[in-house]
Specification:
Elongation Factor Tu (Ef-tu), domain 3, about 25% strand, six-stranded parallel sheet, single chain, Rossmann fold, elongated
Length: about 325
């Protein structure tokens, strides 16, 4: 069932509740987020409420502290799709404005959570803060819940292999090239989506033909060569090898994301793709000639094929 998306308090008021609700930015919808979302759905099923999320666009720091605003891994729409996969039935993407930022914690709870969203249970992480200047915390939320008639459940942070799972840690891993570890914290591969655009035509003539991705993604893997999976949105998938970099062998100075498919492409090339980054193979480097680069690409392909023999890529 496709999650219903609300985009204003006015649209949600009278249509949203009764709700089992969690609140946050949920960038990446990682393993710790997924645990909270699954618990929201459990509480909703037990009580006949609607499993729900309140999230924000833009990210609140873009309004209150632009210099500290993080690059985001997912758009609001991508977050909604991922939350839907965990069982969430409705999401309010609340436009985060200076007026919302000025709401006192008590006012935020009364006007938003209770009056507009009819929250019967609110589930949050232990570091949850809310209201003007982050004045509200989980202790105050429990006090307000007791006063206003909703339950509060606080879930502890999640640690996987001695690392606290967080959006900031996953961003750091991806941007340093450690996509395989990021995959473990996300519980799925890090991915980029976008349109396939024309490249410079050099690869098709001198090395190997590639698909060139144009993405609006703000978080990009470190330059280098990766084992990837390429999906046509709504269509087939292929094992692949992807270079993120500047094409130094050909004197490039613009970042490009070029993907070589390891399985035959039948029919027309895809117009829009999603790239899943599975493992980093090597740094990008400058070669003395296109022939040397092509030889290296073929070595990369053999390593990627060995990877997919161990971890099959199913259509």
């Amino acid at each position: 069932m496709q999650a219903r998306i609300f985009r204003s308090l006015e649209e949600a008021r009278g249509n949203f509740g009764p709700s089992s609700l969690t609140i946050g930015n949920f960038d990446g919808v990682h393993a710790a987020h997924a645990r909270i979302l699954r618990r929201v759905c459990e509480v909703a099923r037990e009580n006949g409420w609607k499993p729900s999320v309140l999230t924000f666009d833009p990210h609140p720091t873009r309004i209150v502290a632009p210099s500290r605003s993080p690059r985001l891994m997912t758009t609001p729409e991508q977050r909604c799709r991922l939350m839907e996969q965990e069982g969430i039935q409705q999401v309010l993407i609340l436009p985060f404005t200076r007026e919302v930022a000025q709401l006192a914690p008590e006012q935020f709870v009364r006007d938003v959570l209770v009056a507009a969203l009819d929250a019967k249970a609110v589930l949050v992480g232990e570091n949850f803060r809310f209201g003007h200047k982050h004045a509200g915390d989980t202790r105050l939320l429990k006090v307000l819940g007791a006063q206003l008639g909703f339950g509060v459940e606080v879930l502890p942070g999640l640690t996987l292999r001695r690392a606290m799972v967080s959006s900031s840690e996953i961003r750091r891993l991806v941007e340093s090239g450690n996509v395989s570890r990021a995959c473990r914290l996300l519980e799925r591969p890090f991915a980029l989506e976008g349109d396939v655009v024309r490249g410079h035509g050099v690869g098709a003539k001198q090395t190997v033909p590639t698909l060139n991705l144009s993405t609006q993604g703000e978080v990009l893997p470190a330059t280098g060569v990766y084992v990837t999976k390429t999906y046509e949105l709504g269509g087939p998938q292929w094992p692949s090898v992807t270079n993120v970099g500047y094409r130094p062998t050909f004197g490039g100075n613009e970042l490009s994301i070029e993907t070589f498919l390891l399985a035959q492409l039948e029919g027309l090339p895809p117009k829009r793709i999603r790239l899943e980054f599975l493992r980093r193979l090597r740094d990008e480097k400058k070669f003395e000639s296109p022939e040397q680069l092509k030889a290296q690409i073929l070595r990369d392909v053999r390593r990627a094929q060995a990877y997919f023999r161990r971890v099959p890529c199913h259509n």
